[in-house]
Amino acid sequence: MDIMVFAGLKEKIGDTRITLDIKNEPTVKELKETVYRQYPALEGDVFQVACNESFVKDTHILSKTDEVALIPPVSGG
User: What are the TM regions of this chain, as residue ranges (predicted)?
Assistant: First the structure.
């Protein structure tokens, strides 16, 4: 599953995309667990998951054809 990453997450990973080897259709919670496991530099970072340009909850089931993005909190003024 290809996943876009933004802001501070992108800086820590060093790329704008990550690819996770996920079988079946994971929930958002399972996706987050896999991200933390495969990218330990992100451990403790908080981010939301967007699926097809809408934020989704941890119970949402993702499809391999979904456009998925990890978006950390953003502040602005």
Answer: none
- Which two structure tokens, joined as six digits, stand for 26? 């994971």
CB 8 within 8 A of CB 75: no
Please identify which residue in the block is written with the tokens 């993702």.
62
DSSP notation for the chain = -EEEE-HHHHHHHTSSEEE----S--BHHHHHHHHHHH-GGGTT---EEEETTEEE-TTPBP-TTS-EEEE------
Give the model confidence (pLDDT) of 25-37 as tens digits.
999 999 999 999 9
Type of residue numbered 8: G
